[in-house]
């Protein structure tokens, strides 16, 4: 009985740590006021703020951190940003840009506390018109479809897809993709 109690006491802190899982040192929960945007606007007074979404959730009890990381602006890679391997992705969670049209590239990332996951990189939008002084968020949704014949096993595969969007946080208008367009 003492051994069972000891196992329970040692397991509880591990479960608590898993529920607070976040990938690398990236912010785990949506709180734009806590992000420090990379200033690419030369400190313009009417700069545009572009946030890249982050959230945590559980699937079948496993904690996941899902986030979007900016890797390129107007054809220029961000320093240190990009995908080095399936489990090693880096980028920025917030940018400060000059108003006007910009092209952005990002990675949609999904990592979990078990040390597995992945990222869909080279997602992006070209010539998006960002209005002066406005705030935007780049986000995505993830879908999974399982296909196969017969009992679950080697004849089954799961296909994951991501659908990205850019929304104006001040007006709630979706500016990418435009109505009728698909990513």
Largest sheet: 6 strands, mixed
Relative helix content: under 10%
Numbering strands along the chain, what is their spatial order in the largest sheet? 1-8-2-11-12-13
**Total individual domains:** 1
Mass-distribution shape: globular
Report strand %.
Answer: over 45%
Estimate the mean pLDDT confidence: 86
State the helix count.
Answer: 1
Q: Unreliable stretches, pLDDT < 50, 5 or more residues?
A: 6-18
Determine the N-to-C terminus distance: 57 Å
Rg estimate, integer Å:
19 Å
Which class of secondary structure composition applies to the elements?
mainly beta
Order of SSEs: HEEEEEEEEEEEEE
Describe this structure in words.
There is one protein chain. By secondary structure, the chain is mostly beta strands. It contains 1 helix and 13 strands, in the order αβββββββββββββ. It has one domain. About 7% of the residues have low confidence. The protein has a 6-stranded mixed sheet with strand order 1-8-2-11-12-13, with no helix packed on it. Strand 12 and strand 13 form a beta hairpin.
